[in-house]
Specification:
Blueprint: H1 8-19, H2 26-32, H3 38-51, E1 54-62, E2 65-72, H4 76-90, H5 97-107, H6 112-135
Antiparallel strand pairs: 1-2
């Protein structure tokens, strides 16, 4: 299992990769990071690969040397969900989804309607799955 805690520089690199629609070269990651020095990016990429956050998904020729293409092994949503579960488990608490959603909705007043619609859609999908199971 991947240890979920990322420091700010690791998170910035992961965010660049999550925001990309394709695997990336280290040189591309370097150009898109703001708060991480060029030299540190290589070290952090290696650390993220060792920890299982990213993986090499291909190789390409860059000028005269080979380059590796990196991609995340989990999505931002998967990362956040797993991190949330770990925090609750670490504190010996059961994840209270209602409490979590209430906090999110109250904190971000501009997106209340969007969040509520998403929750409503999710609950409707869950109800449909339950009904299907009952009819089997």
């Amino acid at each position: 299992m991947i240890r979920m805690d990322l420091n700010s520089k690791e998170y910035e690199i992961m965010k660049v990769m999550w925001d990309s629609d394709r695997p990336m070269l280290v040189s591309e990651i370097v150009t898109k990071t703001k708060n991480v020095s060029d030299g540190s990016v290589h070290k952090i990429i290696n650390k993220l690969e060792q920890r299982g956050f990213i993986e090499v998904v291909g190789r390409v020729r860059v000028v005269k040397s080979p380059g590796r293409l990196y991609a995340p092994t989990l999505s931002l949503t998967e990362y956040m969900a797993t991190l949330t579960r770990e925090v609750y488990r670490f504190n010996n608490r059961t994840l209270d989804l209602k409490e979590l959603l209430t906090y999110i909705i109250k904190k971000d007043k501009n997106k209340n309607i969007e969040y509520l619609k998403s929750v409503e859609e999710f609950l409707n999908e869950c109800q449909n799955v339950i009904k299907e199971k009952e009819n089997e």
